[in-house]
Amino acid sequence: MYKNQSDSKVRAKKHLGQHFLKDMNIARQIVDGLTLHGGYNKVLEIGPGMGVLTQFLLTKETYQTYVIEIDTESVAYLKKHYEELTPRIIEGDFLRYNTKETFSEKFAIIGNFPYNISSQIFFRALEIRDQIPEIVCMLQKEVALRIASPPGNKDYGILSVLLQAFYDIDYLVSVPPGAFDPPPKVQSGVIRLRRNAVEKLDCNEKMFFRVVKTAFNQRRKTLRNALRPIGEMPDHPLLTKRAEQLSVAEFVTLTQLAESIQ
Questions:
Q1: Is the pTM of this model over 0.85?
Q2: Binding site residues for S-adenosyl-L-methionine, as ranges?
Q3: What is the pLDDT of residues 50-75, one digit of tens each?
Q4: Which of 98, 137, 166, 186 lies deepest, with the highest CB count within 10 Å?
Q5: How far is CA 153 from the centre of its chain?
Q6: Which domains does the chain have, with CATH numbers?
């Protein structure tokens, strides 16, 4: 029988952005979102809390589940209720954790991400993307839609471009506030990211990140004006457009222009 979090004694902590999922059907859908893309056999759950996703992960025989949790109260709960998981509980902060201490090969990431640090988790995942062929996660719906949004959409932004450069992204399901305890003030969404075939961009990666961020910092302006902090760009048709209109490939071209003036 699966554990219902309404029976739990772990207190949700506001400073950690904790909202514990209590809908078992949604939990199962999130876990079933993993496709083994990239051939991994280990999964790391970020912020398992009281294990609502963990209990479904542990039923899978195709991969071995690890968890990383910063909340000591949740760690104690997990050790008590999931004794078989204890050797694979990492007590710490994913944003500061050296994953190579535990994972020598590829592994997937899954989790109900704390909304206040979800973007930071993705930036960290980008840094170690060659280790991570797949991510399935729940986060604030607005952010989830932004990440999965195609060019030309008002939701398309910095995270959209940076993540879509290296991952194919699917929006899977929306989740109402009532599925959590305590309920958040926003809607939630589940997305799946699967590593694409791009090993390296055809431009300097640091400059690519800088161009994308600078372009969207003034997204209402044409790119010629928005990118003035980087320098005076040579004439190019892309510079008459706005950031939200450009595909990843066009941002690569734009980065090559920026490199030419450095």
A1: yes
A2: 19, 21, 47, 69, 93, 112
A3: 899 999 999 999 999 999 999 899 99
A4: 137
A5: 20
A6: 5-195 (3.40.50.150), 205-260 (1.10.8)
